[in-house]
Amino acid sequence: MVRKFETPYMADWFAISFRWITLVGLIVSLGLGGELNLQTAWPLGLIIAWNLVNTALTSANIRVNYHRPLNLLADFFTAGLFFWIQGGIQGAAFWAGLLPILTGAIYYNFLGAVLSALLFSGIIIYLGTRPDGNPALAFLMAGILAGLGLLFGFLGKQLTAYMRKNRELWIGEEERKQAIQSERMRAIYELTSTLSSTLSYKRVLESALDMSAAALNPDPLQSVSDPLVGVVMLFNGGKLRIGSARRFTTADMRVTFDGADGVLKKALDEGESVAFKDVGYDPELGRVVALRNCTSGFCFPLRSGFNVYGALLFAHPDPDYFTDERRNLLEIIGRQAVIAIQNARLYQDLVEEKERMVEVHEEARKKLARDLHDGPTQSVAAMAMRLNITKRMLAKDVNAATEEIVKLEELAHRTTKEIRHMLFTLRPLILESQGLAAALQSMADKMLETYNQKVTVSVEERVVSQLEMGKQGVIFYIIEEAVNNARKHAAADTIAVRLRQMDVNIALLEIIDNGLGFDVKAMTQAYDKRANSSLGMVNLRERAELVNGLFQLESAPGKGTKVQVYIPLTEEAADRLHHGRRQ
Question: Are 298 and 213 in contact (CB under 8 A)?
Fold first, then answer.
C-alpha cells in the first residue's frame, strides 16, 4: 500500500545518496581490479534500478508499507549476491557488505548497523571456511565488518538524533509561523469587528493603531519591546493634526502638518501608500522627535474619492522592517480605517445635522414670535386702543367716531394680510400644488400687496424640473429669508430673484437688491456672537448646505447686496462643485 506525505523523509535521501556513493565505489573497484564485465555488472544493475525507484518515490514524498525493512532486505540481498558473484573476499569489491551496514545504520541506528554487520560477517565466514576458502582472511574480514558496523551504528545514531532535532526545530518554526499568521488574521478580524461596531472617532483611531501594531508583530515577546512608532493624522481646519499616536512625546502631539511637502504631500496627492527611508530628513516629519531615530516608514492616505480625511503613518528604526507582507497588512488595515472613519464622519454629520435642525426650528419659532410681536400683535393692540377711543367718541362726536371706525377697518385689513403672508411663508400650499415658480411669483405678489415691496422673479423651468420637491422647498425658504432680510434691513427699491442653469448639472440662485448694503467682514465676525443682525445670513448658509449647495455673499455699504447659491443637480456635480472649491 502506498502513502503520500506532505514533507520528505531525510533518512530516505541519506540512504539513496550513500547507495549511489557505494555503487560508484564498487564500479571503480571492479574497474581497477580488471573484473568489470557482464557477469559482475548485472547485480550492480539491480542495485541501480532499485535506487532509481527509491529516488522517484522519495521525490514524490511517497512510501510503501514496510518501507524500511524492504530497503534493508533489498540492499542485503543485492550486496550479498554481488559479493558472491564478484569472487567473495578475494574479489576486487570485497567490501560490498558495507552497503547493508550503511542502510541499517540510517534506518535502525546502532542496532541495525550491528545486526547487518554480523549477518554479512556470517556469510563471509561461511564462504571462507569452505574447502576452497581462506578461513584467516574470512575471520579478519568479518572482524573488520563488525568493527565498521559498530562505527557506522554509532554515527547513524548521532545522525538520526541530529535529523530529529532539526525536524523538530523545523516543525516548531512552521508552527510558530502558522501561529503568527493566525494571530495576524485574528488581529485583522478584531480590527474589522471593532471598527464596524463603533461610531466614535477616538475609538476608531485607537483601534487602528493598536490592531496595526498587533498585526505587524503578533509575537507577544517581540511586541513588548518593539520600537514601532505609529500615528493617525486627520485634517482639521486645513491642517493635519494628531488624532492618536504611539511613542509620541507630549510636544510631538501638538505638532501640525500642512501636507504640502515630502512624504505626506506625495501620499495625499497620489492617493497611494508610500514606503520611504530616512524619516528624519523629511521636511515635515523631521520635526517630530519620535521619528528622528527611525530609518524606514510607511504612509497610507486615508482617502475615499475626493474626500481626504488624513494619513496613517508608521516608522521603525530597522531599515528593512516594512516588508511586502507588512505593507500589505497595513494597506488592509488602512482601508478598513477609511471605511470606519467615513461611518464615524457620517454619524457625526447626522448628529450635527440633527442639532442644527433643532436650532433651525427653534430659530423659526423665535422668528415667528418676533414677526407676530412686531406685526399683528402690535396691530391688534392698536385696534383695541382705538376701539376704546371710538366707544368714548360715540357719545360726543358721531362723525369723528365714524372716521375712526374706517381707520380701524383699514388696520384690520392690513393685519389680516400680514397674518396671511406669515401663514403663506410658514407653509406655501401653492409650492406643493403648482411648484417653485408659481410659489415665488405668489410670494412676490404678496410682498407687493402687504409691504409695497417690489420683487421681480425669473425662474428657468428646466432647472425646476430637475429639482425634487424637498429641494424646491429649501430653495423657497432661502429666497424668502433673503428677500425678508432685504426688505427689513436694506430699504431696497427692488429685489430681483433669479434661478438659472449656470453649468452642466449646476444651477445658480441669485437674490440681488439695490439697498443700503453692509460690511460683510463685520457681519462675519458677528457670526460667532450670534448677533441678530447676522442670524439671517447664518440661516441662509445652513439652508444652502441642506441642498449640498455653495453659498456666496457680496455686499458693501451703499452698493446693495448679492446672495448667490450654487446648487448641484446631481451627485457628480456636487463632487465637482466642492472639489473645485477645495482646489
Answer: no
Report how far residue 66's alpha carbon sits from residue 69's, in angstroms, rounded to the nearest whole number. 6
| Backbone torsion region of residue 98, taken as left when φ is above 0, otherwise alpha when ψ lies between -120 and 50, otherwise beta | alpha
Please, how many CA atoms are within 13 Å of residue 316, restricted to the half-sphere of its CB? 20
Backbone angles phi, psi at 130, to 5 degrees: -70, 160
CB 434 within 8 A of CB 443: no
Q: What are the tens digits of pLDDT across the range 255-282? A: 999 888 899 999 988 888 999 988 878 8
The Cα 549–Cα 567 span in angstroms is: 5
Cβ atoms of 106 and 14 within 8 Å: the answer is yes
Buried/exposed 175-198: b ≥16 CB within 10 Å, e otherwise: eeeeeeeebbeebbeebbebbeeb
Q: Position 221: which residue type?
A: L
- 300 bridge partner residues: 312
Grid coordinates belonging to 113: 548497523
Residue 66, C-alpha cell as written in the block: 514496510
Q: In what order do the strands lie in the sheet with 229-236?
A: 256-257, 239-246, 229-236, 307-316, 296-304, 274-277
What fold, for 452-583?
A: Heat Shock Protein 90 (3.30.565)
Parts of the chain belonging to CATH 3.30.450.40? 221-351
CB 521 within 8 A of CB 479: no
Please, what's the largest Cα pairwise distance for the chain? 177
CATH of 221-351 among 3.30.70.2740, 3.40.630.30, 1.10.10.60, 3.30.450.40? 3.30.450.40
For residue 116, the surrounding DSSP H or E stretch is helix 98-128
Could you tell me which of 78, 89, 85, 94 has the C-alpha nearest to residue 26? Answer: 94
> Is-contact 301 331, C-beta < 8 A?
no
- Across 486-576, the runs of DSSP E, i.e. the strands, are 494-503, 506-513, 550-555, 561-568
CA dist 44 and 23 (Å) reads 7
Residues of the chain with CATH 3.30.565.10: 452-583
pLDDT in tens, 359-402: 656 666 666 666 666 667 777 777 777 777 777 777 777 777 77
User: Cell 478598513, residue?
Assistant: 336
Task: Judge whether 511 and 483 are in contact, CB under 8 Å.
Answer: yes
Q: How far is the C-alpha of 538 from the C-alpha of 517, rounded, in Å? A: 17
Average pLDDT of the chain is 77
Place of cell 510558530: 176
> 51, 130, 46, 138: which is closest to 91 by C-alpha?
138
Looking at residue 348, its amino acid is Q
